[in-house]
Amino acid sequence: MRAYAVAVYLFLYIPIGIIVLFSFNAGRHASDFQGFSTKWYGTALNNPFMMDALTTSLIVAFSSAVCATVFGTMAAMGLQRVKGRLRALYDAVIYVAIMIPGIVIGIATLIALVTVFNFLNPLIASVWPAGTDRPPRLNMGYTSLIAAHTMFTMALVIVIVRARIAGMDRTLIEASADLYATPMRTFRQVTLPQIFPAILAGFLLAFTFSFDDFIIAFFVAGSETTLPIYVFSSIRRGVTPEINAIGTMVLGMSLTLLVVAQFLLRGRGGTARRRAAG
Amino acid sequence: MLVLPLAVVIVFSFGERGPAGGYVPAFTFEQYLNLPARLTAFKNTMVLAPLGTLAALLVAYPLAYYLAIRASPRLRNGLLVMVIVPFWTSILIRTYAWIFILGGRGLPRLIELIGFDEVRLINTPFAVLIGIIYGYLPLMIFPIYVSLEKLDRRLLEASSDLGATPLRTFLQVTLPLSIPGVATGCMLVFILLMGEFLIPALLGGGKVFFIGNALVDLFLQSRNWAYGSAVAATLVIIMLVTVTLYMRLVSRGASNRDDVSLI
C-alpha cells in the first residue's frame, strides 16, 4: 500500500522534475543532458516574443483577478441573504461554471462577444462625431481575455469567500449593530477583517488560473498572445531547453502563489478567527 | 451570463457559413446533417474519455484509500497538498513533460537499451491515455478521499469483529460507502475530458484527435462557425445526457451528496 502511494507520487512529480532538470541543460537538444548551465534562462528572458507574451499574461491575469475578486466577493456576500430554491439554483450555476470544460466557455464567449461587437460597432460609428478620428472598434483582445477570465474565475472566488463567510461568527455582526455601528462600518471593521484572508486567497487562485489558462485564451485572445499560447506554438515548432526554462519559471510562479494562498486559507485564517473570538 | 453564450451557440448552429468564413444567419439543419464528417473525432472522444476516466479511477482509488485510512495523520495533510499542487499548476507545461518522456529520446530509448525492439509511444492513443491519467489524477483522488475520510471507522471495526475478512470488509463496507466520491470524481473527469484539447493536440500528434481539436480547427482555422457551433452543441448534449444517466445510476445506490472542495 505504501509502495503504491510512493509510486503514484513519483508518477505525479517525476515529469515536473524532468522539466526543471532539463531547463539547466547546457546542450542544444532538449533531451540530451550535456552539463549544467543557466544559459537557457537568459535566452528566454531576452526573447522579445516571450517577454511580450509574459507582459500580456500578467496584465490579463492581474486585471481579471481584481475584477473576479471584487465581483466574486460582492456575489458571495449577496448570496448569504438568498435562501431556499433560488439559492440552490445559484449554487448549481456556480458549480456548472467550475465544471464546464474550458473549450465550451471559450467558444461560447467568442461567439457571444463577436455578436455583441458586431451589434455595437455600427452603433458607435453612427453616433461618433464626424470629422474627428475614426471611431473606435471593439475587437477581440485584452478586453475579451479579461472578460472571459473574470467570468470563469469569479465562480472560484465565490466558493472560497462563501466558505469563509459561513464559518464566521454571526454574533459579532449583531454585536456591532447593537453598538450602533452603521452597516458600512460593520462591514469595514468586522466582516472584512475576518474574510480578508479568503478574499486574498481567492485573488491569488484567480490570478494563477488566468495566468495558466490556455484553452479559453486560445479562443478569445484575438491577435494577442498570452504566455501559454506562446508556449503552445513553440512546442509545435519543436522541443527546446528554452521551453523548459519558461516552463520552470511558470511552475515556480504558480507554486509560490499557491503556497501563499494555502498559508492564507489555513494558517493566518485560523489565528484571525481565534483573535476575533478572543 | 453563463446561459446566454450557450444559447448563442445553439442559434449559430442553425446558421450557415459566410463566404469568407464566420457566420450568416439562417435556419437550416444542414450543419447537423454534416456531423458525420467529423465522426472520427466523436468516436475517439467517446472511446478515450470513458477509458481515461476508468484508468484514472483505478490509479486514484488505492491512493485515496491509503491517504484516508492508512496514512498517519501527521503526514496526511502534507500528502494531500502534494496531490492538489499539480492540479493548480499549468496543465500545458505538465503535458509538455510527457512529449519529453514519451518522445524518441526518452522512454523508447531506455526500452531499446534494455534490449527490446524500437517502440513508438508518442502520437499514439496510449500516449494520450497516459497524459489523461497524469493530468486528471488529482481531480479524481480528491473527491474519493473526501468520501473515504468521512467514513465512520467503527463500521470497519464492527465488520472485522463480526469475522469478515479485510477483502470482504472492503467490498461490503468501504467500497459502497465511497461510491458518492467515486461518482463525483468520475463525473468531473469525464466532463472535462469530453472537451479536452491540449492532451490530444500535444501527445496525439494529429493522429489521435478529440472533438475539442475539431472545434479548434473549425473555429480558429477554417472559420466555419455555423458547423463548429453544431459540433459544440452536440458535444454539450452528449455531455448532459451521459451525466444525467450516470447520476441516475449512481443515486440509486447512494443518496448523500458530496461537496467537493479543491482548495
What does this 3D model show about the protein?
Chain A contains 11 helices and no strands. Chain A starts with a helix and ends with a helix. In chain A, helix 6 crosses helix 8 and helix 7 packs antiparallel against helix 8. Chain A has helices at 2-23, 39-45, 48-81, 84-99, 102-127, 142-166, 170-178, 183-212, 215-220, 227-237, 241-277. Chain A has 278 residues and is an all-alpha fold. The relative contact order of chain A is 0.15. By secondary structure, chain B is mostly helical. Helix content of chain B is 72%, strand content 0%. Chain B contains 13 helices and no strands. Chain B has helices at residues 3-13, 30-33, 39-70, 73-87, 91-102, 107-114, 125-149, 153-161, 166-177, 179-194, 198-203, 211-221, 225-253. Chain B is globular, with a radius of gyration of 22 Å. The chains are: A mainly alpha (278), B mainly alpha (263).
Biggest sheet character of chain B: none
| Helix fraction bin of chain B | over 70%
User: What percentage of residues of chain A falls in helices of 4 or more residues?
Assistant: over 70%
Kindly report how far apart the N and C termini of chain B lie: 25 Å
Task: Return residue spans of chain B where pLDDT drops below 50 for at least 5 consecutive residues.
Answer: 254-263
* Shape summary of chain A: globular
Q: What are the low-pLDDT stretches of chain A, counting only 5+ consecutive residues below 50?
A: 268-278
Structural class of chain B: mainly alpha
Order of SSEs of chain A, N→C? HHHHHHHHHHH
Oligomer: heterodimer
**CA radius of gyration of chain B:** 22 Å
Provide a count of the helices of chain A: 11
Helix-strand string of chain B:
HHHHHHHHHHHHH
Summing up helix and strand content along with how strands pair, one would put the structural category of chain A as mainly alpha
The biggest chain-chain interface is: A-B, 62 and 63 residues
- Strand content of chain A is under 5%
* DSSP strand tally of chain A: 0
